[in-house]
Amino acid sequence: MPIRINLLSEALAEAEMRRRDPVKRAILIGIFLVVSSLVVFSTSWLDGKLIQERKAQVEIEISQRADDYKEVLADHKTLEDGQLRLNALTQLSTNRFLQGNLLNALQKIYVPNVQLQHLRLEQSYTKTEGVPTTTNKYGFTILGRPTTITEHILLTLDARDTSSNAGDKVNPFKEALAAQSFFMANLDPASGVKLASLSSPQSTVGGKPYVLFTLECRFADKTR
After folding, report:
1. Hey, is 109 helix, strand or coil?
2. Whole-angstrom Cα distance, residue 188 to residue 216?
3. Distance between CA atoms of 88 and 76, rounded to whole angstroms?
4. Which residues is 223 bridged to in the sheet?
5. Is residue 166 exposed (0-12), middle (13-18) or buried (19+ Cβ within 10 Å)?
């Protein structure tokens, strides 16, 4: 029976031992992990780069939108200011004090022996500055108010009472004035018609007695 001798058995054994060497295996695993880490790092870096570019693009778009938004707000404020002025002019034209209505109301008041001699109409105006809308440090909007104009009207009437008992018709004339529809609708409820002055009895050239008196009519303030 032939005897076979494998002269490479020792070399094969050594190669197998080297193949099974744990240090080599660890090195291979380490190389694999390093390569994997490099791949993951490269992927993450690329993703981060793309995100940074997208962020920069979004910031540019936000900046453009912010400028557009500011322009829209400015246009809106201009439009609001114009509308407020238009409303004020419309209110002024429709609610202004018409002296023709006053004169028409006066001619409807009749008390025997009382003659209206003079009238004086004083119109004054008080301006209240507006306050713009603001935003406080907490981000809450504090509404402002527009500029307003308050109209004050004072009517002064000088009249003469020539009744037989001079002075008796002063109060009836005052009451008739306050009861007239125009005055009733427009007089200040608190002030109304007040007797400002009353002279002592006097006599005409013919000897007829009379008194002079003055009434003040304060109309309700109107704010526009």
Report:
1. coil
2. 11
3. 18
4. 150
5. buried
What mean pLDDT is reported for the chain?
A: 81
Tell me the average pLDDT across 47-66: 80
Query: Taking residues 36-60, what's their average pLDDT?
Result: 79
Contacts of 142 (CB under 8 A, 6+ apart): 133, 134, 135, 136
pTM above 0.70, yes or no: no
Has residue 63 got a pLDDT over 60? yes
- Sort 162 into a burial class: Cβ within 10 Å, 0-12 / 13-18 / 19+: middle
Cβ–Cβ under 8 Å, residues 200 and 211: yes
End-to-end CA distance of the chain: 133
Q: Which tokens in the block code for residue 198? A: 């009353």
Burial 86-111 (b: 16+ CB within 10 A, else e): eeeeeeeeeeeeeeeebeebbeebeb
Percentage with pLDDT > 90 across the chain = 30
Residues 6+ apart with CB under 8 A from 197: 212, 213, 214
Paired residues of 209 in beta bridges = 203
Give me the pLDDT at residue 52, please. 82
